[in-house]
User: Fold this.
Amino acid sequence: MTVSWTPHRFSGGLLALDTANTVVMRGDAAGFDRFADVAEIARFAEAASAFRATELGGRRLAAPQPERIAPAVLEIREATDRLFRNAVVAGGIATDDMPPFLRACASVLSGGTDRIGAAGTPFGDPATPIAFEVALAVSALSLLGELSRLRICPNCRWLFLDRSRNASRVWCDMAVCGNRRKARRHYRRRIAAGGKAAAREVDNV
Ligand SMILES: [Zn+2]
Assistant:
């Protein structure tokens, strides 16, 4: 079954975080990988071209041969998640997490001809597309300067950037994770208050 790349799946706020979040409930027995079918990498890249257009300066992502780039993409994804998840939990980057992360990024940047970081064209000239794996590495490296805004959603464990003015965002997506958590709390309260009859009633909603 193909993945529907909905706006919710781009709640991370940055290409590298949305990519890290393609593993759902990471570390949990019920978790799964939306890139298990590597063809999804190309479909994700297409959706991300629109959802991450601001970050990318309007440059589209190209992933014409997802099976060829899959090993590098997954290596960057896993190294990004490990380094930044640990950093949020522990309150700082473990220097020992950096070499695998930097090597994963370097492997796709080596020999490239893109020019990044210019005003208005952060990922290079939008007249042509950029290779997805190159953009992913650039986005992942940019996270090193975003640590103070990085959060882990307490409901789904996704990584996301909190860009709220007072840095108070709790959920990756209030409409999804915030509401699910609220519904669960409500359900537990009804059970505690009214026993099984109340539980059945809530189940039927
Ligand atoms: Zn969430």
Notes: The CA atoms of residues 73 and 133 lie 6 Å apart. Residues 173-205 form one domain.
